């Protein structure tokens, strides 16, 4: 510790010591009024201790010094007949009050240390889990890629596919998707999971819409979109919207309506995916955002669901400081990805155009 460091670190104690010495001086100078500086010393000691919580030996030393000094002053005045002898009881009483405070403060400090230790242990455990997930996923990807490559070569050599090979390829594709999604989730807690930049909401959502509406046979509709920008990681946002749209397709029949739309809510923007699919049972909506959770396990498995898509959407939304919510009925579901830090375009008051209405079916 440097020579200048100690006084700076102990400035509160030094300030209090000066204050206590001044009040002790006042007790000696004005014996008939000494009860006021006497109590000021004890009150200030309790206050300072509340902030500092010294170690036990230091606490006992300070307490003994204060009790002796204030007690000696009252004792001298009692001998001189200026104070009543009964005033001496104030010293053990104030000491007892101070010790009660010490006891509480020590207990609180011990509890805080325990909480900190547990938080640290939890953090380490999480880190270990994430590292394990990351390592295991990377190790799994390589053999899966090699096996797929061999099977594809086999197909090419045979000039066509066999059902057994198709099944094997499908399963390998499934494992590949699971592993890649796990890898993404393993990164969810890291600081660079999302890197924000200003993203134009209209053009971004339109782009995602075009990609999906061209490849999947559904009654696609692009609803109203707010003009403005939001601070978001475009890559992560695309992954989240893709996951929501993939579900809308997976859990609806060909020809069913799917709408992608957005609306500004003050300084947030909500991007919504609404479908006319199978809907989600009310008791399942709370848990579908958990990893490997499925509302209907057999149905999800039939359509190739693995229960990681919404966990990823949720992690991405939270990493942006936002959230993903769902409302559902037997007629379909609406997922709403809410992102903060939206800035409306200056001419946003103009009514937005309905850009592409492939269906009149309003969701
Ligand atoms: P999965 O890969 O199983 O689709 P998700 O995490 O994306 O995993 O979704 C979790 C579960 O939520 C799904 O298994 C499904 O039961 C339900 N779900 C998600 N989106 C929809 C939707 N649009 N309509 C009906 N159910 C849905």
Written overview of the protein:
- The chain is of the alpha+beta class and 363 residues long.
- It is built from 10 helices and 9 strands.
- It has a 6-stranded mixed sheet with strand order 6-7-5-4-2-9, with helices on one face. It has a 3-stranded antiparallel sheet with strand order 1-3-8.
- A hairpin with a 2-residue loop joins strand 4 (257-265) and strand 5.
- The longest helix is centred in the middle third of the chain and has 69 residues, at 90-158.
- 26% of the residues are buried.
- Mean pLDDT is 89; it is low at 353-360.
- The structure holds adenosine-5'-diphosphate.
- Residues 243, 247-248, 250-251, 275, 277-278, 280, 288, 293-296, 300, 305-311, 333 line the site of adenosine-5'-diphosphate.
């Amino acid at each position: 510790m440097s020579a200048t460091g100690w006084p700076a670190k102990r400035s509160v104690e030094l300030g209090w010591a000066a204050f206590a010495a001044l009040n002790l001086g006042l007790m000696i100078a004005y014996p008939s009024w000494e009860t006021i500086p006497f109590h000021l010393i004890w009150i200030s000691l309790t206050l300072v201790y509340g902030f500092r919580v010294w170690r036990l030996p230091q606490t006992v030393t300070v307490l003994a010094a204060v009790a002796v000094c204030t007690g000696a002053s009252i004792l001298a005045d009692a001998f001189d007949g200026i104070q009543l002898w009964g005033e001496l009881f104030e010293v053990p009483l104030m000491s007892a009050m101070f010790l009660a405070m010490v006891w509480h403060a020590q207990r609180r400090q011990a509890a805080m240390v325990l909480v900190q230790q547990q938080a640290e242990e939890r953090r380490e455990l999480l880190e270990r889990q994430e590292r394990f997930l990351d390592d295991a996923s990377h190790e799994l990807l390589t053999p899966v890629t090699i096996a797929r490559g061999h099977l594809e070569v086999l197909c090419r050599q045979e000039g066509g596919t066999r059902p057994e090979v198709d099944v094997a390829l499908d399963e390998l594709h499934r494992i590949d998707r699971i592993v890649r999604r796990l890898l993404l989730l393993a990164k969810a807690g890291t600081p660079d999971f999302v890197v924000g930049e200003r993203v134009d909401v209209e053009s971004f959502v339109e782009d995602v819409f075009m990609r999906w509406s061209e490849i999947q046979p559904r009654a696609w509709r692009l609803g109203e979109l707010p003009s403005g920008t939001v601070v978001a990681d475009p890559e992560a946002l695309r992954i989240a919207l893709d996951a929501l749209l993939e579900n809308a397709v997976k859990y609806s029949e060909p020809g069913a309506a799917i709408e992608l739309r957005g609306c500004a809510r003050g300084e947030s923007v909500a991007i919504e995916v609404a479908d006319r699919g199978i809907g989600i049972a009310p008791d399942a909506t709370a848990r579908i955002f958990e990893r490997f959770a499925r509302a209907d396990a057999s149905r999800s498995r039939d359509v190739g669901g693995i229960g990681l898509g919404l966990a990823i959407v949720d992690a991405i939304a939270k990493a942006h400081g936002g959230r993903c919510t769902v409302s559902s009925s037997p007629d379909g579901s609406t997922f709403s990805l809410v992102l903060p830090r939206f800035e409306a375009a200056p001419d946003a008051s103009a009514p937005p155009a309905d850009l592409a209405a492939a269906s009149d079916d309003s969701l």
